Fold each of these.
Amino acid sequence: MAQLSEIMSRSLITVDKNASLRRARRILDRHRIRHLLVMDGKRLVGIVTDRDLRQAAPSSKSPLTTREREEFMDELKVAEVMSRTLITASPDTTVREAARVMVSEKIGCLPVVNGYQLVGIVTETDLLEMLVREEQP
């Protein structure tokens, strides 16, 4: 059975917990990702998702001007909207077990840690890509 170390992404895109929501949004958009790992120095402290940012942002239908909405997103910090309850896996976790956890917990990614060190991330897309590769002759 394949382990996460075989399919996890090792090129990690992270953001500092004190970064603004506007910065986090730019990072997600630039890298075309939906999950952003939140760090306090070298320590993983949370995760912020595309959905978290959309829910925190003022609606375009709000009475705020575009500039006021941008200022709001500049002032609000990632630490204020991130999920602090992290479900992680280790590099030797099987792909099947990771998929089971992601389904049962209704989460779209698993940070992969070796001890206290962040070493990778596995997303739903990684699992689907593995499934597609296995199906090809």
Note: The chain has a mean pLDDT of 91.
Amino acid sequence: MKFMLMMHGSRAGFEALAKWKPEEFHAHIRFMLDLNAKLTSSGELVLAEGLDVPHNVKVVRAEAANAPIVSDGPFAETKEFLVGFWIVDCTSAQRAHEIAAMASVAPGPGGKPLAIPIEVRQVMSAPPIDG
């Protein structure tokens, strides 16, 4: 079963990140790289990526024959942003929750676990469309 584990962050969290000591930031990144290595070793990691900062995000909309409209986003009222994600292939939802819990305790300032919210959603395949 495949699951997408989505790490969310807030604007305040992004602003606070700028105040972390370099060694705290490096410990956080090392934690994530070690988690990815463990998941690779167990055969459960399909893909993991961090995402660019919110102020670089663009929203694209298009109608059938018209050129796409590209605008800045997300909008100021957005309180949370997708920071990064993992696609894991594991035996159960329970195992996906265990992996999400591992990611949630990534260290922050002073090495304290951040309790990062990790959204877990099963990756579904498309239904058959044959006749």
Note: Helices lie at 11-17, 22-41, 93-104.
Amino acid sequence: MNYAKSKLTNKLVVITGPSAAGKDVVANEISKWLPLKKVVTTTTRAPRPGEKRGVAHHFVSRERFKEMIKQDLLLEYVDFDNNYYGTRRQDLRRPTMEGLVPLLRVDPIEALRIQRHNPDALVIFIRPESIQIIKKRLMERGTSVEDIDKRLRLAKEAMTKENIFAYSVVNRDGHLEETVRAVKRIVKNYLGL
């Protein structure tokens, strides 16, 4: 094992924040520049148009997910909007076998659980500049009014958890490059690069 790989052993990067804060796009962008690999999560929800199995998520039945919980196969999981979402331990190990650092994109409740069990993990909270920006982004996605209301309530709750994490980066509307640069700096420092 070379020095660079050994420096990355046992590292874990977690991106969290409220719905529509820009977690996915930030995670995808920093993965292009740093030795990170996004961990594919498992869910019981149906695939959305264009989502590929094993790329966006591993899609399983509720029964299978409950079996995974009983067998302690998950690092963390959450029940959101009548669907389970979680990270299988085996999926977390895959990036490390390639000499890369696992990158998780999860909600704040999951991030808290991960932080509790992995105190050395780097957790970065991505937040919008306002709740109104979240509403605008959800409307642009074509999200239903009922779902927008639910996600806004959850976003307000998520924002109260921001100070629990060591790092918080504001993803200002129209300033994605600035957000990505800030997150890259934090991750590079954590990885010793």
Note: The chain is about 45% helix and 20% strand.
